[in-house]
Sequence to fold (123 residues):
Amino acid sequence: MEFLNIAVPRSEAELAVMVSLLVAHEIPHYVHNQGFGGLYPGMQVPLYNTRRIMVPEAWFEDAAQLLAALRDEDGDAARLPPRDRMRIVAEGLLGGWPVPFPRQKPSPEPAPDDTGPEPGPAA
Fold:
């Protein structure tokens, strides 16, 4: 049995609604990256942490008709408004949000040893 990708939800709420519709209509489905995709919130990388709803090939037409109400007239999922797009770009440029890197603390220089007089020449 081959599973086909039917939808890529943009949020946890959209995923819950889509899965609820499929369950209510008894359409078998599989959510790829269901558990792993929620571990790393933020930037969604395809084939890494993006969750996708998949249905068997025999149920694809029924699922497509059912989920069609959640899509806009172009057939694509709703797009982000320009304000949100600009926020994402600003976070990426100013905050280093998309690619975090470990910040290393500078190692403190050792303080001179003031515990006593310097040893003299060995006799």
About this structure: DSSP finds three helices and three strands in the chain. The helical segments are 12-24, 60-67, 82-95. The chain has a mean pLDDT of 77. The beta strands are 3-7, 30-32, 52-56.
